[in-house]
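Colleagues,

For the teaching module next term, I've prepared a clean inverse folding example: a structure given as tokens, and then the sequence designed for it. I'd like students to try predicting residues themselves before seeing the answer, so please don't circulate the second half yet.
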């Protein structure tokens, strides 16, 4: 791997199987491009977006992991409070609905009962209240580029303590065997940028009809924004979120140190 390009990653092979099972076909786009032929804009954008300390740390950025842990704790706290509010609202709605359905007490001197002239509700009429879906916290990973590469190359997608320990050891091995330039080169050539779209060259062709070597700063930043959730972002690559986030990344690119 220090010299030869990996033919595929564990994640890619799992995606092939998923596409065969779900869609009975595999649409695939990937072309290896040497790191020297990639746009420096793309390298800077990805590092600025994914791992600002890539050139300095040894593969595991503990500060980033701690920040991610704190952010996840805040997100979980917000979700718990919101879910408690939703449960309280739903309980109040159930109580109000139960009281409304109780029949009115009969009057002893009632001579006649007026007919109910209200129209029958349409079967398409929506209920007064609809149960809301529980709020899920928006969690972040905090993984470095080296950790992401180790995970993509060798590991499954399961989330367990044992798999995280494997990722840690494999990251140390990658950092010992490969220099930073090679790690970034393999990462940019194998990372997912959409369903069946892998690597910088395929992404540049798919989204901008150009080559990875010709990507301008803003286009490179837009690709970098997509990396945490490429399948979701590829549905709306021109969204306001991607545009705004890309502008932020462009502003940071000048301060990025490349290996």
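(Answer key — instructors only)
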């Amino acid at each position: 791997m220090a010299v030869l390009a990996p033919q595929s990653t564990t994640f890619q092979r799992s995606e092939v199987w998923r596409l065969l099972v779900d869609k009975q076909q595999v649409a695939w786009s990937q072309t290896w491009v040497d790191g020297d032929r990639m746009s420096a804009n793309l390298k800077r954008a990805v590092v600025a977006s994914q791992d600002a300390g890539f050139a300095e740390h040894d593969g595991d950025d503990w500060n980033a992991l701690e920040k991610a842990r704190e952010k996840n704790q805040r997100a979980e706290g917000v979700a718990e409070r919101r879910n408690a509010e939703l449960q309280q609202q739903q309980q109040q709605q159930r109580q109000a609905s139960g009281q409304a359905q109780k029949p009115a007490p009969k009057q002893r001197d009632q001579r006649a009962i007026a007919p109910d002239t209200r129209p029958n509700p349409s079967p398409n009429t929506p209920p007064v209240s609809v149960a809301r879906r529980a709020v899920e916290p928006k969690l972040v990973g905090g993984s470095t580029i080296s950790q992401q590469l180790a995970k993509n190359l060798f590991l499954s997608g399961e989330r367990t303590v044992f798999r995280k320990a494997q990722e840690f050891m494999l990251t140390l091995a990658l950092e010992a065997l490969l220099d930073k330039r090679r790690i970034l080169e393999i990462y940019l050539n194998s990372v997912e940028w959409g369903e069946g779209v892998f690597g910088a060259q395929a992404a540049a062709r798919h989204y901008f009809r150009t080559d990875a070597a010709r990507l301008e700063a803003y286009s490179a930043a837009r690709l970098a924004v997509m990396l945490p959730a490429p399948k979701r972002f590829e549905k709306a690559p021109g969204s306001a979120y991607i545009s705004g986030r890309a502008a932020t990344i462009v502003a940071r690119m000048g301060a990025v140190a490349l290996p």
